[in-house]
Amino acid sequence: xxxxxxxxxxxxxxxxxxxxxxxxxxxxxxxxxxxxxxxxxxxxxxxxxxxxxxxxxxxxxxxxxxxxxxxxxxxxxxxxxxxxxxxxxxxxxxxxxxxxxxxxxxxxxxxxxxxxxxxxxx
Length: 122
Fold this sequence. Notes:
Elements (H helix, E strand, L loop, with lengths): L2 E9 L2 E10 L4 H12 L5 E12 L1 H16 L3 E5 L3 H10 L7 E2 L2 H16 L1
Helix pairs in contact: 1-2
């Protein structure tokens, strides 16, 4: 199955990648190219919206972990939202992402980000 990646800057430095399809050895490069584009900008947060991802292989996981590693060095974060049960299970099995960076919905993520900003601004 193919992979479609749409990119949206939702606020300054916060980018959402809307993914649809399968992230595997044949398609991970599509995602990696978009992630690299975002990482070359002033990204602070990358949100991977995986609502329409049906499958992810280790190649796809590596792309997500690469983004997380680069952003962490820049005091940023990579977050996952709307994971299908089978995709969530992959991340749980390999313990690739802290559970504090996996959200069941965009609303839950927004609430988290709002709380984080309130802590910074007092």
